[in-house]
Amino acid sequence: MSAVSQTSGAGADKIVLEKAFVKNWKAPISFGVVTIVALLLFVLNGREGTSSFKLTADATAIQLPVIQLPTVATGIVITVLLAGLTAYSAYRVQTERKTPLWIVAIFAFLFLVGFLAWAGAGASIPVYGLLLGTVALSAPLIFGALGGVISERSGVVNIAIEGQMLAGAFVSAMVATLTGNAFAGLFGAMVAGMLVSFVLAAFAIKYLVDQIIVGVVLNVLVLGLTSFFYSTIMTANPQMFNQPARFPRIEIPVLSQIPIIGPLLFQQTIIIYIMYVTVFVVWYGLFHTRWGLRVRSVGEHPQAADTVGIKVGVTRFWNVSLAGAVAGMGGAYFTLGSVGAFNKEMTAGAGFIALAAVIFGQWDPLKATMAALLFGFATNLQSVLGVIGSPVPSEFMLMLPYVVTILAVAGFVGKSRAPAADGKPYIK
Amino acid sequence: MKLELRGITKRFGSLVANDNINLTVNPGEIHCLLGENGAGKSTLMNVLYGLYHAEEGEILLDDVVQDFAGPGDAMAAGIGMVHQHFMLIPVFTVAENVMLGHEETTFGGRLNMTATRKTVRELSDRFGFDLDPDALVEDLPVGVQQRVEIIKALSKNAQVLVFDEPTAVLTPQETDELMLIMKQLRDAGTAIVFITHKLREVREVADRITVIRLGKVVGEAEPTATNEELASLMVGRAVDLMIDKGPADPGAPALVVKDLSVIDHVGQMVVNRVSFEVRAGEILAIAGVQGNGQTELTEAIMGLQQHVTGEISLDGKPLNRLSVNKVLNSGVGFVPEDRNVDGLVGDFTVAENLMLDRSDGEPFVKFGNLQLGYLATFAEEKVEQFDIRAQGIRTLVGRLSGGNQQKVVLARELSRELRLFVAAQPTRGLDVGSIEFVHTQIVAARDAGVAVIVVSTELDEVAALADRVAVMYRGGIIGIVPGDTSRDVLGLMMAGEHHDSRGAVA
Predict the structure, then answer these.
(1) Distance between CA B483 and CA B503 in Å, rounded?
(2) Which residues of A touch B292 (CB under 8 A)?
(3) Do A9 and B143 touch (CB under 8 A)?
């Protein structure tokens, strides 16, 4: 019997219940399916040749050797390893133990290596380029996810991330072009994201309209407005309105010389450095400051917050606005950091992927960042494989980021716990 | 600090919740506010705490008129409140809950946890609470959570403390401890307002008693008044606190439960190898503090739980693995714990709610069509029989009072041919008059030869109804004892101590 009694106070015991194990075959079954896919592709449908993994860019001072692997042998070895992990996972479930996350991580990594080796048979696989592109593609997702985390921690579901980002992208392009200053553009993006948030906050908090509906409507509204102004004003006179000044690349001394991660993380534009700071500040702020304690309290139990004198509506309003500003920066990254001009519908669903990252990341800024990186990686993998000529039809590869999103959210969402009052209006 | 309320009137639309209420509480005094559910006690206290704004009247602290715009102002003025539903954030630690709203910070805006931990330790040592400042509130038992609420109020230097129905969630032992704490606080000079509808507690701690009925002060009483005097003042008529109940005439075992276990979604054994039987024509009360597996046990019997092992049989026929519908059709009536969530559809009419579980065939449905004429006749008859006070059978159930809602549930469940009747917390939140009625109906069902299970956390109810009592603790049954077992013994069993006469099944 494991009923541990814990004495607290004068005799009041905590209710401790015995644990029972419910066998859950989800992990071994999914492992098994993936292993069969590996067997079909890597072994039975193996491709002749050698796969070379290129770890560093050509221009960097320190060069790491290119790793050469025989494709078929690699495929066989990896399939065997995957089968072994599947069996181990099944054995654990049989003996009433869970499959820990590190096994899932190793499994995913092995499959990925096998897949890259198979898809890039006879070609050179640019591992460095794959990772660099991941940072670039993840940046807007990370800003969007942070915006989602702040808003939802305060108790307002932020479906409007997409709209906030798109508004940010549009306004930053316009402002940066008009002023000739990229920083003014970034500021403009924050204001634009905030304005979208004001509408969400006003309807959700003051008028108690369903937050999901307001969010969806806002996305459509912003899409319509930006498309309209793009096709009327911007396309008519692009020099005047849609040639924003871009942020220059800044190398951080010393740190940028570290092999692989140096050029990856520390030879970036300022907006990426702002992103690093934002991730840290949001995490620190949420869990170690008065602001964070109050934000989390109104998102968990608004009535309790009210009874200690915290103004629930006001707190929610300003934090939803702040969330809009952060998501707006993600929009600015599209125009000022990567593309260099505004295009119609240029966020293309990134806001929704960011929302998935919020849920997958369990409403935690750091985990949401990791989730955004994963989604960014999946997106980039698809384009890199397109370049090196993978045998998989490109239509399938285009689905990859979304398949990863669905698998991630479906597989893990049951375990994560949303802020208790997320999405619920507070009525006194 | 002296608290005085003068002529407080609070209206919600046409409803007058508080009508010209006057109340004075002196420092070093426990003032009881006694009244039934819905009498307006909580409204009054929410006015005092700044959550509601009164239309008329004023609040004075030490003879100075106060104007509270919100709870923040009330707290700053020295009023603390221990709410009926704790105002604690479950995923925060004790220290975080205590500091919320008046946080101290150090360099870089970092929360000063060290200082708060110290405050919590000092206050909890002073009252012998033994609280761990870093424990998560959701992991603490309710009795300890309540102490966190008290510490929270004291840390803001509360001079007036309001306890709103504080004993509703406590075991008898925890209640006794709370009484001691209240006396301790009183002796330290705090003015205490104690809101309750439980007469025994009032007589134990009160220095003065004010009785409220339908929003008005109807009288003051001395702590020496008898239960009957207080009850009649509270209800407005003479009440009989014990219902008439003859000795049981138990027949053959009807419900037999063997080695029943229920596992919840996180893998805890919420019901742990429980075995018992209920005979036809007897009432088995399942006592225990809320959250010890009673809910899951009744849900398992009804077929509402997923991971169930063991056997359940009614009159020799197995009940487990049957759908809820088949369980109901084999003669089981069920009054769920929360009538608003599981028992009724608030936006349906009285008549529609009366046929909720009988939509699959005659006489209410023929060829897929509702038999509205038949339903109306049936509903009229039940409204009459169960004394449901509604404007008509087409009144929406959500508009009825708690007592009348519960009568609708009872009317529906008792109108079928029953073999087993399961009533979970059948009188929670009801007024004394409705409690009498519900109890009478339950005893009537027993006398008609139905096996009855009553789940209750109230010892008064257990004492009034039970032929035998099964006490649940941490998912298991700690013992089954005769219905006339003393409160003290039941109280100890509810706290997990095995009773000597365990197994002495009546």
Answers:
(1) 14
(2) 15
(3) yes
Instruction: Tell me whether residues B177 and A9 touch, CB distance under 8 A.
Output: yes
Checking if the pLDDT of A185 tops 90, the result is yes
Q: A391 or A198: whose pLDDT is higher?
A: A198
Rounded to whole angstroms, what are the CA distances from A406 to A30, A99, A243, B305?
A: 14, 20, 36, 29
Are A293 and B307 within 8 A, CB to CB? no
SS3 B93: strand
Q: Is the pLDDT of residue B54 over 60?
A: yes
Which residue among B101, B132, B270 sits closest to A310, beta carbon to beta carbon? B101
Residues of A in contact with B263 (CB under 8 A): 20, 22
Q: What is the mean pLDDT of chain B?
A: 88
SS3 A279: helix
Reported as a single tens digit per residue, the pLDDT across A345-367 is 899 899 999 999 998 888 999 99
Contact A17 B72 (CB under 8 A): no
Do residues A209 and A275 make contact, with C-beta atoms less than 8 angstroms apart?
no
How far apart are the C-alpha atoms of B396 and B375, rounded to whole Å? 15
Distances in Å between the alpha carbon of A148 and those of A154, A163, A401, B159?
10, 12, 19, 42
State the pTM of this model. 0.81
Domain B3-235 has CATH 3.40.50.300: yes
Instruction: For residue B72, list chain A residues with Cβ-Cβ distance below 8 A.
Output: 308-310
CB contact under 8 A, A294 and B100: yes
User: Closest Cα to residue A398, out of A387, A383, A384?
Assistant: A383
HSE (side-chain half, CA atoms, 13 Å) at A353: 31
Quick one: average pLDDT of A132-153? 95
Q: How far apart are CA B174 and CA A120, in angstroms?
A: 69
Which residues of chain A lie closer than 8 angstroms to B86, CB-CB? 304
Q: What is the pLDDT of residues B403-424, one digit of tens each?
A: 889 999 999 999 888 999 999 9
pLDDT at B400: 83
Strand, coil or helix: what is B195?
strand
Query: CA-to-CA distance for B266 and B338, rounded, in angstroms?
Result: 23
Q: Does domain A129-410 have CATH number 1.10.155?
A: no
- At position A323, the amino acid (one-letter code) is A
Q: In the 8-state DSSP scheme, what is residue A405? A: H
Contact (Cβ atoms closer than 8 angstroms) between residue A262 and residue A246:
no
Does B68 or A295 have the greater pLDDT score?
A295
Q: Which structure tokens are listed for A251? A: 């190398």
Mean pLDDT for all residues in chain A: 87
Residues of B in contact with A303 (CB under 8 A): 87
Query: Domain extents for chain A?
Result: 26-122, 129-410
**What six digits make up the tokens of B144?**
């300890």
CB pairs A-B closer than 8 Å: 141
Rounded average pLDDT over B218-234: 85
Residue B367 main-chain phi, psi, to 5 deg: 50, 40
Of residues B189 and A15, more confidence is placed in: B189
ipTM above 0.85, yes or no: no
Beta-bridge partner residues of B61? B3, B64
Chain B residues in contact with A306 (beta carbon < 8 A):
51, 70-71
**Rounded Cα gap, residues B10 and B17, in angstroms:** 6
Q: For residue B409, give how far its alpha carbon lies from the nearest alpha carbon of chain A (Å).
A: 29
CATH of domain B253-494: 3.40.50.300
CATH 3.40.50.300 residue ranges of chain B are 3-235, 253-494
Q: Distance, in angstroms, between A256 CA and closest chain B CA?
A: 29
Partner-chain contact B101 A305, CB within 8 Å: yes
B215-221 mean pLDDT = 89
pLDDT at B504 over 50: no
**Calpha distance A193→A144 (Å, rounded):** 10
Q: Tell me the pLDDT band of A16, cut-offs 50, 70 and 90.
A: low
Mutate which of A307, A311, A416, A417 to test chain B, going by most B C-beta atoms within 10 A?
A307
